[in-house]
Design brief:
By secondary structure, this protein is of the alpha+beta class. It has a single domain, classed as Nucleoside Triphosphate Pyrophosphohydrolase (Alpha-Beta Complex). It is about 25% helix and about 35% strand. The strands form three sheets. Strands 1, 4, 6, 7 and 8 form a five-stranded mixed beta sheet that branches. The protein has a three-stranded antiparallel beta sheet with strand order 3-2-10, with no helix packed on it. A two-stranded antiparallel ribbon has the order 5-9. Strand 2 and strand 3 form a beta hairpin. It is globular and about 45 Å long. The N and C termini lie far apart (about 40 Å). The mean pLDDT is about 95.
Length: about 160
């Protein structure tokens, strides 16, 4: 059982401040990796919550591997997100205020394979063809990535 599940046993559905990390994986064709999540049936970035003793970079690497079977060869810090905009109520009632550290990964290895418990599908998408059903806490992250980072680095 993970740390967040242990806390949930004590506090029920009440809001938790949940630190975690996610990864924007960009392939050689300048496409973005998204996963269709089992919990809210929305597309989002590989990532998850921090366990005691982990660094945020370790969280990002672990979650990327657990959910996609890909190993990050490099991670670059993109931004840290928090505040009202990152409040989320899961379909089963758990409430969180996410504190999300987002990394970018352009070098990785492994054969993509989804985690059957957390991921319904894994796909790469061109930046201008993202699915409409995006996970709400990740929409501001993806918008910032597309609107600022892409223009600065000529990914268009």
């Amino acid at each position: 059982m993970g740390y967040i599940q242990e806390l949930r046993e004590l506090v029920g559905h009440r809001p938790l401040i949940m630190p975690g990390a996610n990864v924007i994986v960009v392939d050689k064709n300048k496409r973005l990796l998204l996963q269709l999540r089992t919990d809210n049936k929305c597309w989002g970035l590989p990532g998850g919550s921090m366990e005691p003793g982990e660094t945020l970079k370790e969280v990002a690497k672990r979650e990327l591997y657990e959910e996609t079977n890909l190993v990050a060869k490099n991670l670059t810090l993109f931004n840290v997100y928090s505040g009202e905009e990152f409040y989320y109520k899961y379909p089963h009632g758990d409430e969180v205020y996410n504190v999300i550290t987002t990394f970018i990964c352009t070098e990785y290895e492994g054969v993509m394979k989804k985690d059957e418990n957390e991921v319904l599908d894994l796909q790469f998408f061109h930046f201008d063809e993202l699915p409409s059903e995006l996970s709400p806490p990740e929409m501001p992250i993806l918008n910032e990535f597309i609107n600022t980072y892409l223009g600065m680095h000529n990914y268009e």
